[in-house]
Amino acid sequence: MKKIEKKLYSIFIKMYTSEKFSFSKKNKNVFMFKVPLKVTKKDIKKTILQLFNIYPKNINTLVIKKKKKKKGKFIHYYKSWKKVYITFKKKKNYNM
Which stretches are transmembrane (predicted)? Predict the structure, then answer.
C-alpha cells in the first residue's frame, strides 16, 4: 500500500456500529465511522472520492463529548470523539 493511501485510510479510525443503528431499516445506504476530531466534512468527502470513487449523497457529523466514569473514589474520563454518517445514493455492495 502506498504512503498516500495509508494517509487517506488514517482519516477513518474504524467502522462503528451501534444496536440502534443496526436495527434501523432506513439506514441501508448509510455507513457510520469513528474519525478524529479535527477531520472536516470536506476531508471526508475528498477521501471517499479518492479511495473508493464513490460520490457520497450526504455526510453528517456528530461530536461525542467526553464522559466521566467513576470507580470508587477514582474518576476517569472517556475521550471525546467524532462520529460520521455517510449516505450514498444507491444501494450497492460497498467494500469498505
Answer: none
